[in-house]
């Protein structure tokens, strides 16, 4: 049975980064503090960085990192997560994920620029551009995922659209114990999420708090 | 060495309750969800309710509840926490803490109505009304606490004044895994608190997340 999943890295005060982007620091200067525990895991180092030496943390953070990559059959991204800034004017531009994006599955990109031709990439990723409602795109993504899950990959605006519409089965937040005081707010308009979902809480060796909402 | 301490019960989205007061529900309808784990502890039942039967939870929540009551030599409260609404017009009104308030120590009440005479109560509590700066009142409270600690007992506005002024040595937040979407915001203007304080995170059997900032 396909489940709809979201994973977020947030601060104790409920922010994701991304309002302090700059050319020098495209992810924003707060991104490192939010993701240090995750990017330090053995799974991240192996799966994303291609580090085959076995370095990186194991334990609770790594278990969540491994679960993140498990059983995803399709992904949905907001337009900014594809990186439309020169596409399709520059026919060579294929998003900012490089020649071999890390998805390996169909990736549905929500954009009013659709229809656009599919964009097959090396490694099994195919970008598919859609302008329908989130429910329509989710139905298509779920169908293409077959029995595997659909991840809403971001950004936070897209993730919150799916959350606020009640479309998410599994929300996992990794809370870094830092106070950012700025960024994109995650929790607005989600009062009572603990009533529709079961909540599990866990602390990692790094001090990161992992909270999982499951229905 | 006197330390300045604050304990808060907050939601995952960073709210304390208290914006939904009503005559029928003076603490607000969200208060129960925020404090259920705490009021269920054996320490709370014994210390606050006078339950001598030994019922209530033990474990992580109870350890924090016991620490809450330990080594406090003076307390500071905002005016609303004393309950000024009929004082001093009604000479019988002595705050809403009853004839024997649960403090048992000098309690400094921040109020522009001062000077007012001290109000000694049964059980060792004396209310002392002060209109000076928070630094001045803290200095006096610390002196009267001798080597014990001073608790900033609330409300959240008063707690945040001390936090934002950098006057707090120990902040313990018990985070109930619920999304309230309303209430008083705890974390505003506290960016970087993790840089001036060491942070410890812990999960209780109840699912409550305990985060302690210590310097």
TrEMBL record, chains A, B:
SUPFAM superfamilies: Dihydrofolate reductase-like
Residues annotated as domain Bacterial bifunctional deaminase-reductase C-terminal: 4-190
TM annotation in the entry: none
InterPro entries: DHFR-like_dom_sf (IPR024072), RibDG_C (IPR002734), Riboflavin_Biosynth_HTPR (IPR050765)
One Gene Ontology molecular-function label: 5-amino-6-(5-phosphoribosylamino)uracil reductase activity
Single Gene Ontology BP annotation: riboflavin biosynthetic process
Domain of life where this protein originates: Bacteria
Protein name, per record: RibD C-terminal domain-containing protein
Organism, as annotated: Williamsia sterculiae
């Amino acid at each position: 049975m396909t489940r709809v999943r979201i994973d977020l890295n947030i601060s104790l005060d409920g922010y994701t980064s991304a309002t302090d982007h700059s050319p020098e620091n495209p992810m924003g200067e707060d991104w490192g503090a939010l993701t240090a525990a995750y990017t330090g895991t053995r799974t991240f180092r192996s799966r994303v960085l291609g580090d085959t030496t076995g370095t990186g943390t194991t334990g609770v953070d790594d278990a969540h990192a491994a679960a993140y990559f498990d059983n995803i059959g399709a992904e949905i991204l907001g337009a900014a997560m594809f990186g439309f800034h020169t596409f399709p004017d520059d026919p060579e531009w294929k998003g900012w994920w490089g020649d071999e994006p890390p998805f390996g599955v169909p990736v549905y990109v929500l954009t009013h620029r659709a229809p656009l031709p599919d964009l097959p990439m090396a490694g099994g990723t195919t970008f598919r551009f859609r302008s329908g409602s989130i429910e329509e795109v989710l139905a298509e993504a779920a169908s293409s995922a077959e029995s595997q899950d659909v991840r809403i990959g971001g950004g936070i605006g897209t993730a919150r659209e799916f959350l606020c519409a009640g479309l998410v089965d599994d929300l996992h937040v990794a809370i870094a114990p830092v106070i950012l005081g700025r960024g994109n707010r995650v929790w607005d308009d989600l009062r009572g999420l603990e009533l529709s979902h079961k909540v599990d809480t866990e602390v990692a060796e790094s001090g990161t708090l992992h909270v999982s909402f499951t229905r």
